[in-house]
Design a protein that fits this description.
Strand 8 (154-159) and strand 9 form a beta hairpin. The chain is globular and about 85 Å long. 39% of the residues are buried. The protein has 575 residues and is of the alpha+beta class. Helices cover 18% and strands 32% of the residues. The longest helix is centred in the first third of the chain and has 22 residues, at 117-138. Helix 4 runs antiparallel to helix 5. Among the domains are: 6-91, Phosphorylase Kinase, domain 1 (2-Layer Sandwich), CATH 3.30.200.20; 95-180 and 199-290, Transferase(Phosphotransferase) domain 1 (Transferase(Phosphotransferase), domain 1, Orthogonal Bundle), CATH 1.10.510.10. The strands form nine sheets. The protein has a five-stranded antiparallel β-sheet. Keywords: ATP-binding, Kinase, Nucleotide-binding, Transferase. GO terms for molecular function: ATP binding; protein kinase activity. This is Protein kinase domain-containing protein.
Length: 575
């Protein structure tokens, strides 16, 4: 739902991120600065909204403004509009909930199997950063009890300045806690009266069902979260499956000395965040990571970027960058996707010299190739290039040339064709690529058997095609996306282009076939007008004779005949 106020005028609504009892959060793009934000919309001035509920919504805004730090999602602005309260916040693409859902799959293990040391290291770092966030709340003045700590409300976004990833969000149930000089006989702070039964049932501390509690209520929630992070819901005993690991002593220290204490039913027996953090060296492998069998003994630096993906054979591959700007890879390496010019499994991290000291910002991948983008928007590519998915810089052999794996697998190199452009976004399908520049130009390359490149031919394109050749020149493209053998583009006006494989009807054309002969075209469509034309064909606005919907159809000529391809519905789509 959108209104003719500030929200609609200033923001392009892209998608709904999540919703709950307190409102809905949307991913939006600011029309002025082109940046992505998260906006939370909550009912405010409705008859069924009580004064207490209004107060809670206002308190959430006040808490976000007051807790302006690296540990809490940033609040930029809030306003009332059409009976709704809007809160504009920084956008974080992932939550702990989404990470935990697939963590065991990413690291190639079954849920009942013990973690390998590398996954344990990552889990320890996540837990440590969450502890630091909650410690910040509990040491604020006045103290803040979050009261709804759970994986959904723990967001992940890399903060380059502080080299952190974890932030807390959703302070709709948070409350201030005024510490007093009074303590119990055991030296613990005295609890105060707060609202009972506040939070999500699975994570609520026992004492919250009553009225008197303090910051230790959040510690209980943290203990339950830790059980999820470290997979401690084993009916045979959490420590049993870790007995034979190289870090069993560390794990036992974490579980027995910290997590068990955090979920103690007696609040006064729980530790504070700082107590668990001070024990970090005893339960984490971080300080001794260089001595673990998975990491080279000459490494020992902090991991600052991590990219994990499944390759052509559905096996796991890992790339990571360290604090000294060195890039390492390990994994199955199917079809040589990790850039070492062979296709043998890599059992321990190996250095990629061409990517070191390049300040790589992020990685994207297809089924058996990887692209790495640095801070200057220079795109490096490596892996299999049989279908031209790495662009023209990596060779010009024809698709019917006999393929020699040892010769044709390139070492990582720069896709020089993009050097004079500023790459705003790059995305990979199964083995094709779309790149969007800051000026709204779209480049595409790779195999085109299913029309996923968008030029209308079924050839493989190693030389990137620009958006002008794709007949997008009259539109302002704001984002692109590849899926398997299909491609999508969204304009600033809300138009959605889709092309490529439509065998699963996922292009949204409401038509099973996207490739028409001249006779079929005239039977199914009424031609309304010409939208654009160029060297690769002409695009028409048409009306379907059966469903009365408007489409854009591209006509290209090859083999002495005209062929027609559905590109999109020419209709504004609101996200």
């Amino acid at each position: 739902m959108m209104y003719n106020g500030k929200y609609k005028k200033q923001f392009v609504e892209m998608s709904a991120i999540g919703s709950g009892g307190f409102g809905t959060v949307f991913k939006v793009k600011d029309r002025l600065d082109d940046k992505i934000y998260a906006i939370k919309r909550m009912e405010f001035d409705f008859k069924d909204i009580s004064d207490q509920q209004k107060l809670r919504r206002i308190e959430e805004v006040k808490n976000l403004v007051k807790l302006n730090s690296q540990y809490v999602v940033k609040c930029y602005y809030s306003w009332l509009e059409c009976n709704y309260l809007y809160i504009q916040m920084e956008y974080c693409s992932q939550s702990l909930k989404s990470v935990l859902k697939d963590k065991h799959i990413v690291f190639g293990r079954q849920p009942d199997e013990a973690m390998k040391v590398f996954e344990y290291f990552i889990s320890c770092e996540i837990f440590k950063e969450i502890l630091e966030c909650v410690h910040y709340l509990h040491t604020s003045c006045p103290q803040v009890i979050h009261r709804d700590l759970k994986p959904d409300n723990i967001l992940i976004k890399h903060n380059i300045k502080f080299n952190r990833f974890i932030k807390l969000c959703d302070f709709g149930l948070a409350t201030e806690h005024m510490p007093t000089s009074s303590v119990t006989s055991s030296g613990n702070p005295v609890s105060q009266s707060h609202s009972p039964d506040t939070g999500t049932f699975q994570y609520i501390a026992p004492e919250v069902h009553k009225r008197r509690y303090n910051t230790k209520a959040d510690i209980y929630s943290m203990g339950v979260i830790a059980q999820h992070i470290f997979d401690l819901f084993d009916i045979d005993g959490p420590t049993k499956k870790y007995r034979l690991t190289t870090f069993s002593v560390k794990f036992n220290r974490l579980y027995k000395n910290n997590i068990q204490s955090m979920v103690n039913f007696a609040a006064n027996e729980r530790p504070n965040c700082i107590d668990v953090l001070q024990d970090y060296n005893n339960w984490s492998v971080g300080k001794h990571f260089k001595n673990c069998d998975i990491i080279p003994t000459n490494m020992g630096n902090i991991i600052t970027k991590l990219h994990v993906f499944r390759d052509l054979d559905n096996c796991v591959n890992v790339l990571f960058k360290t604090s000294d700007d060195m890039v390492y890879v390990f994994g199955d390496n199917s079809n040589g996707c990790l850039g070492l010019r062979h296709n043998n499994p890599i059992l321990s991290p190996e250095l990629i010299p061409q990517l070191c000291q390049q300040n790589i910002q992020y990685f994207v991948n297809g089924c058996d190739f990887v692209l790495a983008v640095n801070d200057l928007n220079v795109v490096h590519g490596f892996g299999n290039n049989y279908w031209g998915q790495l662009g023209p810089v990596f060779g010009s052999f024809r698709i019917d040339t006999p393929f020699n794996l040892k010769i044709d697998l390139p070492k990582p190199g720069i896709i020089s064709y993009l050097n004079d452009t500023t790459v705003a976004q790059i995305t990979c399908g199964y083995n094709h690529v779309l790149a969007l520049t800051s000026k709204g130009r779209v480049y595409a390359w790779g195999p085109n058997r299913y029309g996923q490149i968008g030029c209308g031919y079924t050839l493989t394109w190693r030389f990137p095609l620009t958006k002008h050749e794709l007949n997008f020149n009259i539109y302002n493209i704001q984002t692109v996306y590849c899926y398997y053998r299909s491609s999508f583009a969204i304009t600033t006006d809300g138009l959605v282009f889709s092309w490529g494989d439509n065998s699963g009807h996922h292009l949204g054309h409401n038509i099973s076939d996207d490739n028409f002969s001249d006779n079929n075209y005239k039977q199914q469509f009424i031609e309304i007008s010409t939208i654009s034309s160029g060297g690769f064909g002409t695009v028409f606005q048409v009306k379907h004779r059966l469903d009365d919907k408007i489409y854009a159809v591209k006509r290209v000529q090859f083999g002495g005949k005209y062929h027609y391809f559905i590109l999109m519905k020419t209709k504004n789509i609101e996200f």
